Amino acid sequence: MSAPVALARYLDNEGIITYDEAGTGGNCFTGPLAPKPALAVSIRQYGGSGDIKFALDIPRIQVRVRAAASDEALAKAQEIYEALHGLVFTTMDPGGDAEKYVFECRALDLPSDVGIDENGRPEYVINFEIEHQGDAMRRES
Fold first, then answer.
1. pTM of the predicted protein model
2. E-assigned strands of the chain?
3. pLDDT of residue 17
């Protein structure tokens, strides 16, 4: 499983979002934002890097938050920022199929207003780098 899934499960466990992997409920998605609910969060990987010698992967993750009102979207984005920025030595999704041991999670920017969606709802994004233990097949663990 992917880093976005591990992150969604972590934030769900912290009570910050509701992640329903079937996509029929909840307010968090690991793909594009669904049209409903109005308050929704999307967590997607958009690249990253990995160490060539050691089993360390560093995906870049974008968290997009949308809500009916700008202050609501910003508040949720800020809550996610506070939960993740500076998170160290944590296992996300312990025992699950997306388990990731996180060495460090850092925000690359503060929650940023990126405009409105096609329905006039405000959106904010935050980009993160998450250093986590990677596949050790060809690298030292």
1. 0.92
2. 28-29, 40-50, 56-66, 88-92, 100-107, 112-116, 122-133
3. 97
